[in-house]
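WARN  no MSA supplied for this record, continuing single-sequence
INFO  ligand: alpha-D-glucose-1-phosphate-6-vanadate
INFO  echoing inputs
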Amino acid sequence: IKINSIPTKPIEGQKTGTSGLRKKAKVFMQENYLANWIQALFNSLPPEDYKNGLLVLGGDGRYFNREAAQIIIKIAAGNGVGKVLVGKEGILSTPAVSAVIRNRKANGGFIMSASHNPGGPEYDWGIKFNYNSGQPAPESITDKIYGNTLSINEIKVADIPDVDLSRLGVTKYGNFSVEVVDPVSDYLELLEIVFDFQLIKSLLSRSNFRFIFDAMHAVTGAYAKPIFVDKLGASLDSILNGVPLEDFGHGHPDPNLTYAKELVDIMYGENGPDFGAASDGDGDRNMILGQGFFVTPSDSVAIIAANAQEAIPYFRSGPKGLARSMPTSGALDRVAEKLNLPFFEVPTGWKFFGNLMDAGKLSICGEESFGTGSDHIREKDGIWAVLAWISIIAYRNKDKKLGEKLVSVADVVKEHWAIYGRNFFSRYDYEECESEGANKMIEYLRDLVSKSKPGEKYGSYALQFADDFKYTDPVDGSVVSKQGVRFVFTDGSRIIYRLSGTGSAGATVRVYIEQFEPDVSKHDVDAQTALKPLIDLALSISKLKDFTGREKPTVIT
Ligand code: VG1
Ligand code: CO
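INFO  complex generated
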């Protein structure tokens, strides 16, 4: 095939954040913006990682993905990639890309998604690159890519026609080829190995168990019917917003109590279903709800870990180890302690779990931001989390006779609290603040931390320590610092401050608040009520109102 060399100039600001590069779609649609980043990526990889190799390409179906897919395929071919495997219509969820990379022994893959950020001409677009075990590219690679975007002068583009992404099969162009694959099959095959589908089916087909899944018009729309309905016997009307749309139906595809309002209203309404779940733009996040009951993501991963061995065949010989991101509550720590398992605390973002999994030290992990997953792949996995929960509920009810009252989601959570205690947790997000004020606030907090002393009184709390989280990877020894300012008190309560690394405009301040309560009689208190004193303290320590001008958060989870 003929390869054209297109001259180009560096474009500023192409630095990846917590999870890939995210900007407004309009920014990505500027001449050579995406092409520069893709070429910079090839300039950063060792040639043996892609020359004549196999790369996977997929995305969440958002606006600009179709054009972007053609650009990426042509640059891949221009740089000597042997074959690109792409999901039909460009669709593959983030967990499915990870599964396909592993299953097909690919060198890596691209995910065209800005995840939970809204899509459409006025909203966001994004791109992530995953490596050969299916994990998000490490910072050593993304730093190199950024460096190369600042010196790039040439893009290598193969002179081939646009690929028809609507038809399955292989098309050859000289020694380069493209294969269009079904987005569901590899992923579903893996899930069938992980879970006991018969057990799940036994619950979903019960007449007194009502299930509902909200795909939020995002990528899991392509997976929900084939998996929940066709394979597992859920009724067709249990899938809400099941068609992926370029603008997610004007929605904000983030499965939380604020943005998944439609589902939340159903679950909290009169005689709501027994089980509700939702996933985000690219299918890696999940929200789990019972009838009128919300499971916090921090509790969710702890409960999955505590029940995995008995309810999920993949963990039959027990999980190897457990891990959570730093701001995630300590509920999981208690499970690790009780089960006597290795435990790790890593910075925010899934890329830090992969090394531990590859080294055989980690099986189940999660983040407070609605991310839960395991070492079946190297990404968080929304549908996996839903199936894990249904497996647990199904296992608890497997001997229940027709007409007998079933053990509910709330029952399982409350029983867990009774055994382990409850870690009250909440996160306040202040979205799209002025960057200057937000940065100043973090600097102010870093300064406060450097002067802090153990034992200092903050209201009724005594300080155990305060720091800016730093992580040394136990596998490769790499170090990342400045991962979040934390104040940890002697009773185990924590206040954490971070700036988001996934936004596309201004700065988003995140404040995480946690307090442990061993006393069962206090477990039914609403989290906002239980945490009120600590939340007030968090706002006053940081002078958040003064720095950001914000009276109230935009999202509370
Ligand atoms: C957020 C979450 C983080 C998550 C990341 C990617 O990052 O806090 O836990 O891993 O999004 O998720 P940040 O830097 O904005 O806090 V996804 O579903 O957007 O790929
Ligand atoms: Co996501």
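Residues 435-451 form the longest helix (17 residues).
INFO  checksum written, moving to next record
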